[in-house]
Amino acid sequence: MIQDLYSTLQNDSGLTAIFGSAVYNTLPPDGTTAPYIIFQAVDEAPLNNLASSSARRMLFQVDCFCTTVAQAESAWLALKAATDTSYVIQNVDRVYNPVTNQFRLAADLSSNANY
Fold it and tell me: I want to staple 36 with a disulfide (CB 3.0 to 4.6 A). Which of 22, 59, 70, 79 is the partner?
């Protein structure tokens, strides 16, 4: 599941137009500057249905770090488009950090899968 999300974030043309190849699992390398994306799995739960005992719901957090408000809004539109068919966006936060002078778009995504 996490590899599928990485592939989606890394290969979507709308996201690569903004972030290039700067997509990292959990933490960016030291010295990374915006714009970049980090993502991580934050929860996994069984769906417990009669059709499959291996069905699971995965919850991911995707954080897009941007240098401008316009870039953050473009990142939001690109993230929605990239994940529209495979993930459900459950929550979105937009935060400005005056210390780093970065805009952070944080989105929670969920997806169901069979293992």
Answer: 22
The answer to whether the beta carbons of residues 81 and 89 sit under 8 Å apart is no
| CATH classification for the domain delimited by 2-47+54-114, as one of 3.90.380.10, 1.20.1250.40, 3.40.1000.70, 3.30.2000.10 | 3.30.2000.10
87 phi/psi in degrees, rounded to 5: -135, 155
Mean pLDDT of 3-31: 96
Q: What is the pLDDT of residues 46-88, one digit of tens each?
A: 776 666 667 778 899 999 999 999 999 999 999 999 999 899 9
